[in-house]
Automatic annotation (TrEMBL):
Organism of provenance: Pontixanthobacter luteolus
Matching InterPro entries: AP_endonuc_1 (IPR004808), Endo/exonu/phosph_ase_sf (IPR036691), Endo/exonuclease/phosphatase (IPR005135), ExoIII-like (IPR037493)
Binding site for Mg(2+): 7, 34, 147, 149, 247-248
Cofactor: Mg(2+); Mn(2+)
Protein name: Exodeoxyribonuclease III
Length: 258
């Protein structure tokens, strides 16, 4: 069972690339972020043509998350991150697929800082930790995947100096992420690549892709029940180099059957 995450940066703008990736790699589950589409505009019919069913949580022009599953319908278990009834941003969606609970997240960026956007990021991470504690207590196979907008360590960025003032690398952001790992969650890509040097994002500016100036912000965190079944991880780097690609690239784990 392959579970993948992909910040698509506009599901309509990148639809040919997204369909291409799904058809070529056939993940069982594909979690998408930044779909940038209202619910009624999500192109579900295009995915159904190639055998995928899905659920989505959209928002006009910004944010938005979706979960697609190959040959089966994801069973929604949570829409929106609990803990703040005033929060209207579409950043969290959760479902069951073939006995695995999967949460798709698009964590706030937090720039510029200091300011309300960074405060929102940190508060959102506190709420995420609370939800992940709930999932942990269920003692079920679970993956919380997506764009975390956190560079965990200096080895996860091409130049720590270049990113030092960014919200993605602030001590508060890293501490909040590390608390998730301290709760027992396994960072699948980080665990399998202990020396770092694995990027999942390359900016459109300054020739970042051509110069391989990237960093790792797309993560797959697993409960022990799922980490014990982990057989492989991967980053589909080549898709970042295709025409009209997202600035992120797909990241995935392979899980054995229960």
């Amino acid at each position: 069972m392959r579970i993948a995450t992909y910040n698509i940066n506009g599901v309509k703008a990148r639809l040919p690339r997204l369909l291409e990736w799904l058809d070529e790699t056939r993940p069982k589950v594909a979690c998408l972020q930044e779909i940038k589409s209202q619910d009624e505009g999500f192109p579900i019919a295009e995915f159904e043509k190639i055998g995928y069913q899905g659920i989505w949580h959209g928002q006009k022009s910004f944010n938005g998350v979706a979960i697609l599953a190959d040959g089966t319908a994801p069973v929604e278990t949570q829409r929106g991150l609990p803990g703040d009834p005033e929060d209207e941003q579409s950043r969290y969606l959760e479902a069951e697929v073939d006995g695995v609970r999967i949460a798709c997240i698009y964590l706030p960026n937090g720039n510029p800082l200091p300011g309300p956007k960074f405060d929102y990021k940190l508060a959102w991470m506190e709420r995420l930790r609370a939800r992940m504690k709930h999932l942990w207590d269920l003692e079920i196979p679970c993956a919380v995947v997506g764009d975390y907008n956190v560079i965990p360590e200096d080895k996860d960025v091409w130049s720590p100096k270049a990113m030092a003032s960014d919200a993605l690398m602030q001590p508060e952001s890293r501490d909040a992420y590390n608390r998730l790992l301290g709760d027992g969650w396994t960072d699948a890509i980080g665990t399998r690549n202990p020396r770092g040097g694995v990027w999942t994002y390359w900016d459109y500016q300054a020739g970042a892709w051509q110069r391989d100036h990237g960093f790792r912000i797309d993560h797959l965190l697993l409960t022990p029940e799922l980490a014990d079944r982990l057989t492989a991880v991967g980053v589909d780097k080549e898709y970042r180099g295709r025409e009209k690609a997202s600035d992120h690239t797909p990241v995935w784990v392979e899980i054995t059957a229960a």
